[in-house]
Amino acid sequence: MTGTVRRLLAQQSAVRFAALLLLLGGFGLLVLLAPRPELTELPRHVERLGALAPVAGVVGGAVLLVALVPRTFVTLASGALFGALEGAAYALGAALLAAALGFAVGRALGRDFVSERARGRLARLDGWFARQSVLGVMTVRLLPISGFGLVSYGYGTTGARLLPFLTGSVLASAPTAFGYAAVGAAASSPDGINWYAVAPAALGLIASAALLRNWWRAERRRRRDLLAGPDAPTDR
């Protein structure tokens, strides 16, 4: 009986994981085929929504991110709709909501499948995600490996903790959010470009490079300590 129950549970987890893959594939196809609006046409929609515009901006941006639309486009559109500062704030709100939604879907549909098959290196990798701090999440977010939504789904399938994941996701999105929103605002209102507003984009690149450098140095030091053994002297 126990073996039958285990097989049924394994089949259910496989079905849920297949549903997750189909969902991601459908979103990817939709992103490729969907028309892309012009940034200059976006500001007039804000007047139609009135007081609901900020809520629509955050929720709509989150839905787009969950549907695997690149965060760069979502932030540009937010800047075009609401201006540089407000657009950046709403884009960060959308990133937080999308990270939570993607994580929840990945955890519900894919976690059991991954945990049942985590062996050897995969188990060690899963343990690394489970131990990750905010800095670790930020590092993964800043690496050019995949889109914002796909990373959120992927983290949900691992043993990662929710709070560090959400915090790291927002902090990693912040450096470039203001720069991209400023560019979007400038694109929708070319006559009123404030080039000083684009400065945060450069600062974001510098911050990202510094974070990756520190992470790389920490990883090299950790590997050197592991090879040296527990009795080896540590650098101070």
Number of domains: 1
Beta strand %? under 5%
Describe the main β-sheet briefly. Answer: none
Radius of gyration, whole Å: 21 Å
The oligomeric state is: single chain
Q: Catalogue the unreliable spans.
A: none
Mean pLDDT: 79
End-to-end Cα distance: 57 Å
- Total number of strands: 0
Task: Provide the helix percentage.
Answer: over 70%
Q: List the helices and strands in order.
A: HHHHHHHHHH
Number of contiguous helices: 10
**Rough outline:** flat
The SS-based structural class is mainly alpha
Structure overview:
It contains 10 helices and no strands. Helix 3 packs antiparallel against helix 4 (71-82). With 236 residues, it is an all-alpha fold. The chain is 78% helix and 0% strand. The protein has one domain. The termini are far apart.
Highlighted features:
single chain, 236 residues, 0% strand
What's the layout of helices and strands?
Elements: H1 2-33, H2 43-49, H3 53-66, H4 71-82, H5 84-116, H6 121-130, H7 134-142, H8 148-156, H9 162-188, H10 199-228
Helix pairs in contact: 1-5, 3-4, 3-5, 4-5, 4-9, 5-8, 5-9, 7-9, 7-10, 9-10
